[in-house]
Amino acid sequence: SAKTILVTGGAGYIGSVVVEQLVGEGARVVVFDNLSQGHRAAVHPDAVFVEGDLLDAEAIESTVAEYRPESVLHFAAHSLVGESMQVPLKYLGQNVTAGLNLFQTMVNHDVRQLILSSTANLFGDPEEIPISESTKIAPGSAYGESKYILERMLAWLEQIHGLRYAALRYFNAAGATAERGEDHTPETHLIPLVLEVALGQRDQITVFGDDYPTEDGTCIRDYIHVSDLAQAHIRALDALAEGSRVYNLGNGNGFSVQDVIETAREVTGHPIPVVSGERRAGDPAILVADSQKIRAELDWKPQFPQLRDIMQTAWNWHQSHPNGYAE
Ligand code: UDP
Fold it and tell me: Where would one find coiled-coil regions in this protein (predicted)?
């Protein structure tokens, strides 16, 4: 019989694309999501859907008892860096407590395989670029700290309970599949905001700082296609039999805010008016991943390394879903 995989946050942007790939490979997938940020319509119809909150220890306990998964992919979390610097305890409290409840349930039921969504924010404003797994950890926000706390918990659970885990430190997830894309309320991410301008839903895009020490003065980020991220989860899961691991997961190419806007103009044919704004608190100038480790160990490589292709997939989805997942 097919293996059962529990996916927390499987109704969210990245989780829903991973679910789509897992279902495509014939896995039995159970999505556990409180729909605080996720969308019911994003969950693949062949996955089981359980609406529940990880802060409710009994809810996750009974779900694991009922479906008996062999492995867990843990996406569910609050994930806004800026918000975490306004209300840090929402992150240090809820993200950590949600993980704790999930891990306790796994220990209770002897579920020994987990993939954790982690973040490049673990490295704060890094001393070296590109950022490798040996770059110094210094979380740049309460959000990043909440993920680092979970990574540290997992290291102890491996040592004491034999729980195998992979922590994947995402850089900037972007792009879409034909059916699944980025729909946050409120939207704060650059690419969907730019495409909302192209759709006529916003008047302009504000560039947060144009005096950074980069070639064009705007911040450089490593945008990685969500399908490439998803594929990395599937490979990491298969590799857990050989032991736990942590990987930095980016495309390896940096693109500036200006590059993103230019590329969106080319792809959409819309002028996309820009205004200069203040720097956003906590934004480092450059974040680019060194993904050599995952490339070498899991034979993973991005299928969408070009920003233009990433943008095109996002634009296709935005055009076919102008109101996101809303009816
Ligand atoms: N950004 C911007 N204007 C916006 C939203 C984002 O200039 O309206 C910039 C932001 O400062 C950062 C980059 O775009 O340098 C990517 O931001 P996003 O929020 O998409 O992802 P993050 O890097 O924060 O994870």
Answer: none
> Number of structural domains, the chain?
2
**Helix boundaries (H) for 25-131:** 57-67, 81-84, 88-89, 96-108
Q: Does residue 74 share a domain with residue 188? A: no
143 is catalytic: yes
Per this entry, what is the length of the chain?
A: 327
In a shared domain, residues 237 and 274: no
For ligand 1, mutation pick of 80, 197, 221 (most atoms within 8 Å of CB):
221
Ligand 1 lining (C-beta closer than 6 Å): 81, 172, 188-190, 193, 205-208, 219, 221, 257, 280, 283
Q: Provide mean pLDDT across the span 146-163.
A: 98
Judging by beta carbons within 10 Å of its beta carbon (0-12, 13-18, 19+), is residue 55 exposed, middle or buried? Answer: middle
pLDDT at 282: 81
Same domain membership, residue 193 and residue 104: no
Instruction: Dig out the tokens for 173 from the structure.
Output: 């997830």
Same domain for 297 and 197: yes
One domain for residues 119 and 183: no
Contact criterion met (CB below 8 Å) for 18 and 7: yes
Query: What predicted TM-score, i.e. pTM, was given to this entire model?
Result: 0.97
Task: Kindly report the average pLDDT of the chain as a whole number.
Answer: 97
* Domain co-membership, 184 together with 238: no
Whether the predicted pLDDT of 33 surpasses 80: yes
CATH number, residue 314: 3.90.25.10
Domain boundaries, position 304? 175-221+252-320
Catalytic residue among 13, 67, 91, 143: 143
HSE of 143, CA atoms in CB hemisphere, 13 A: 20
Residue 1 has pLDDT above 80, yes or no: no
pLDDT tens-digit map of 34-68: 999 999 999 999 999 999 999 999 999 999 999 99
Each residue's pLDDT tens digit, 226-239: 999 999 999 999 99
